[in-house]
Amino acid sequence: MKAVQLKTDYRHSPLGIDNQTPLFSWKCEGGIKQSAFRVLAKDESGTEIFDSGKVQTDSMRCRYSGNPLVSRQRVTWGVTLWDEKKREEQSEIAAFDMGLLNPGDWQADWICGVDTDKEERLPADYYKRDFNVSKPIKSARLYATACGVYTALVNGKRVSDILAPGYTQYDKRLYYQTYDVTNLLLMENNSLEFTVGDGWYKGKVGNDNLEYMYGGYQTKLLAQLEIKYEDGIREVIGTDSQFLWCNDGPVGYNDMKDGEVYNAGKTPSYSANAVETAHNIHPIANLHDGIFEHERFVPKLEVSPSGRNILNFGQNLAGYVRFKPNGKPGDTITIKMFEITDHGEYTDVNIRNPALPDFPAVQQITYICGEENNWFQPDFFCSGFQYALVEGMDSVNPTDFEAVALYSKMNFTGQFSCSNESINKFLCNTVWSLKSNFADVPTDCPHREKNGWTGDAQVFAKTAVYLADTYAFFRKWLKDVRDCQREDGRVANVCPKTAKMGMADVLNGSVGWADAAVIIPYTLWKSYGDINCVTENYDLMHGWKEYVIKAASDKSIYQPAEDGSPQKQMEAIIKPFLLPYSPYNRFIIESGLHWGEWCEPGVDSMAGGYIEIAKPKQEVTCAYMHYSMTLLEEMLLAIDKSEEAAQCKEYADGAKAAYNFHFVKDNDIEALRQAPYVRALALGLLDGEAIKNAAHRLNEMVVNGGYKVGTGFLSTPFILQVLMKHGYGDTAYTMLENKDAPSWLAMVEQGATTVCEHYEIYNEDGSPKSISLNHYSLGAVCGFLFDTVCGISVAGENRFVIKPIPGGSLEWAEASYDSVYGKVTGRWERNENGYTLSFEIPANTSAAIHLPDGKVYEAGSGTYTYAGHHWGYNQKEGAAP
């Protein structure tokens, strides 16, 4: 048995980490059961710095607890495993670099341009430093960050990630990246070049395209090249006033939403020296692997009815267009990226917020030709698109263009396919919406808003974990959520923030959205088995708990203001909808504004402006009080905070009692829409006869509604599991396979290649609706394909439950999930005697396999088949299950 896929803090051989007690993890290959491990770590000289000793356990993780790790330290480590027969085998060697752990490790200064501290969108800053190397090099590392977005070149070769240093709450946190540039340095005539654009720091963000959101008008750069010579001497070349600077290079106006202006006829003059400046945030090491280029698509040329040249890349995505310009010096080429055509013509309707039509995302590359026009792509801009309108070129050759997908580096872990190609396509669409919106922050869409909405992320988190290894990605974003939390514990709806304090601020802390503070850490803990996710986010969860308890007890809305203040205006809207007094009112939030279910088909969530939002959402707030407190109680017990856990139990039980008092009558819920039934059943708010009645009513509502989806963001992830759990599997499958809108497959039928914000893309006249075509939220239902259709779920450390439920018109279905414990697979297929099922359980794990005949088998590592009433297995040197 051999340890494979070695990771340090969930990353393969990361450069520049600042965790001095990193987690080592691995998977097992070969053998049946790991009986022991030994982790051995060494420094660059080969000196042993950590030896776990032989640990008698089947756990595939070990936290470093050796000699204190220090800045710049290069560490190699490996694992020796013993299998069930006590045979040992050594893994390959993994490695990681420590970053710059202390402020004093930075010998560089922050630098900026000359006379650039002004409220004005200026061209990009260019910096350069030439240097020589005097003797043989052992290693070289470049550490870099910026207030803005930077590119870094060593001797003309780009070394930096895409859109580095990434997106954070810049007034609270800033990351730096570490690059190995050892093989790029020469003995003489070396150059170190940086270009810094506005990025999220200075450019337009959020619904309102707000500029200068994070307190600065001036972009800045901090970088440090450290060269370690063979003789042990270390040389540092850090940013300071010796760097040359200019802003007369090719990159002019640049913006994360609007696009980039590039003049190929310009070259940087480097006519001045950079100015040394300061920044009040100390940068820390990046927590995940950043944004990279991935898939590429060559387009087809479609000439519009009006004669315009439109490129169709065949896939909606987030990224940029790379192209080879065709023009004379001074010619201007413009490329506008967009999602869909309107009767064959260009339209920006999908990238323009319908509530704020005056704030479009332009998404345009403007290229001014020079003497030499090589392949070009923008460095300071990422857009959402499937199409591109090309203007200013005499002829358009599709082979001179490609769309490049950009998203955070992650391993994709979930595979599913079945006999229904539309379902397969919808899963593919969901993966593409994940890719399009997981670029350092989980955004709602990659164009008009690009907001890190907490609600979207929490409903999708469980499905995201099936589809990709997202632990490091979510760990980074949860730090953003913590950075945006108010002193009173309130959690912002969008993290990082994209709006200043104002009237809309009352929406922050919206129930179901802000509950991401609890739901996502819980999801990661259950999926990855790492309690560190709970302890790391304890303050976030504790603060949110304190806030909702206070908000529920605050009944100040009963005491309206006597003047014409906003409170008085709000009171007039809210008062008619307040609940009557009950002993349970302290468990229900009635103050504040809440998005509620959001985007329910047939419901105008913005009816009357904010009037609909202003109405209390007591049924929703009560349900999530119970749900979040229940999850939090379990997490607190796991980290030995029993007293606080008891408080959570009090509020979970109280909210459930409140729900049954106010919203359940005679063991029944009287609701006109699907969501309340789904919510009550999924979140555990009902007991006994009320469960049976609610499930019956939900099923009846779905059947009578033609099996169409009637839930919004919050309840859609649960609806199929709820129907299946309560005996309505046929309804669940029919709903899944329905192609009439509103339904998931209706999007596929309309030609979508990603998941849309709503189920219907076109108006009756064939023009596209004003919706985003790249929102992953409704794709959260794909979790059902893994945990129910193929029945794969993690049930603890090294443990799975396999419980497939065949159904519908599907002839077969198969799935695999490359979990933190190994890759588990399952397949079923109809035959004349019923079903044939097969499963593969990875090494060093076990599973409870539930078969259609009701029997449950305990299974260790190996492959298993079931045909009719025959159960077979093939364990490697194994025993019977």
Q: Span from first to last CA?
A: 20 Å
Residues in helix, %: 10-25%
Biggest β-sheet: count, sense, barrel? 9 strands, mixed
Instruction: Report low-confidence residues grouped into runs of 5 or more.
Output: 876-881
Average pLDDT, all residues: 94
- How would you classify the helix and strand content by structural class? alpha+beta
Oligomer: single chain
Shape: globular
Strand content is: 25-35%
Total helical elements: 17
The total count of strands amounts to: 42
Radius of gyration: 28 Å
Structure description:
The structure is a single chain. The chain has 881 residues and is of the alpha+beta class. It is 22% helix and 27% strand. It has 17 helices and 42 strands. Strand 37 and strand 38 (834-841) form a beta hairpin. Helix 12 packs antiparallel against helix 13 and helix 14 (719-725) runs antiparallel to helix 15. The two termini are 20 Å apart. Mean pLDDT is 94; it is low at 876-881.
Keywords:
six-stranded antiparallel β-sheet; 17 helices; 42 strands
List the helices and strands and how they pair.
Elements: E1 2-8, E2 23-29, E3 36-42, E4 48-51, E5 61-63, E6 74-82, E7 88-90, E8 94-97, E9 110-112, E10 125-131, E11 137-147, E12 149-154, E13 157-158, E14 175-180, E15 190-197, H1 199-202, E16 220-229, E17 234-238, E18 244-246, E19 251-255, E20 259-263, E21 272-273, E22 275-277, E23 284-285, E24 291-297, E25 300-303, E26 309-323, E27 332-338, E28 364-368, E29 383-391, E30 401-408, E31 414-418, H2 421-437, E32 438-439, E33 441-442, H3 454-467, H4 471-484, H5 516-528, H6 532-536, H7 538-553, H8 566-574, H9 611-614, H10 618-638, H11 642-663, H12 674-682, H13 688-704, H14 719-725, H15 729-737, H16 744-749, H17 783-789, E34 792-796, E35 799-802, E36 812-819, E37 822-831, E38 834-841, E39 846-850, E40 856-859, E41 862-867, E42 870-874
Parallel strand pairs: 14-23, 20-28, 35-39
Antiparallel strand pairs: 1-2, 2-5, 3-4, 3-6, 6-7, 6-8, 9-22, 10-15, 10-18, 11-14, 11-16, 12-13, 12-15, 16-17, 18-21, 19-20, 24-30, 25-26, 26-29, 26-30, 27-28, 27-29, 31-36, 32-33, 34-35, 36-37, 37-38, 38-41, 39-40, 41-42
Helix pairs in contact: 3-5, 4-5, 10-11, 12-13, 14-15
